[in-house]
Amino acid sequence: MRQTAKRAFFDTVPVMTGYLVLGFGFGIVLYANGFGLLTAFLMSGLIYAGSMQYAAIGLLTGGASFLTAALTTLMVNARHIFYGISMLERYRGVGRRKAYLIFALTDETYSLVCRDGKGVAPERQRDYALLVSLFDHVYWVTGSLFGALVGKLVQFDSRGIDFALTALFLTVFVEQWLSMKNHLPALVGVLGSAACLIIFGSEGFLIPAMLVITLFLLLKREEEEDGLA
Amino acid sequence: MDWHSAGIIVVIALVTALTRFLPFWIWGGERKTPRWVLKLGRALPSAIMGMLVVYCLKGVEVTHLSGFLPEVIACAVVIGLHLWRRNTLVSILGGTVFYMILVQTVFI
After folding, report:
1. What is the pTM of this model?
2. ipTM
């Protein structure tokens, strides 16, 4: 168990740094918009979805309705459905921890648990996935609280800090690009979304983009496919 | 935090959880997952990451230089840093600090 925990910790160090920085940014932006430590704690603990939490700040300050909040969440987080699809087999029969594993399946956690932990015994892989999920969750909440706290104590110009999110996605994108032989899905994602952005505008392009990407990937011939390395 | 804000947070938390649990409810049973679902599961993650990058950049304005140049330069910095060091923290932190300097001091 100690060996598994050690492995999980070392594997999550990149996520820790990313989450502390992004969570920190979230806490700062949240505080700048008039919300404090409790809100940061509740949002990062219960929602636990970085991009949606940044988007949620706009919903909170704009006085959005519950329906608008629900639809926006559905659009921004629809990608989770695809992560779930690719984790169906791996998380089959993991027992009581399954609910938490699914709840905590963020982009970054996914990037670690979608493959086996190196040097972890097969019967320990479930513990490994659980620990990775738990560690990442703790980093995220800690970063957010720290950001809200610093926002409260220190005055500084935080304009542009939300670029952290763009940088995060871009980094994961580059990482996936380098680790995959077949770049077609990545290209479809970027070009399909950009085309939909131009056609439908920035408010309503996510749903058409998801439809276009899904259709294209379903219809393309199954050849030279490879999973995430 | 008022009650409406608390309600919004609960709604977002529930819908977020729904997006994570849904595939397991639909296809997580004993029967075999359909082939097309597995195929999508393999190809989608990198496509969706590309979509998210575009989503983050949806606010850029091509009508004036300061509307898109900071984003373009900072993205190039992130990609360059990542190809060079391949360290997630360096890429994110470096790119973000660079972007903040750009929008706060250069492109005002």
Report:
1. 0.72
2. 0.84
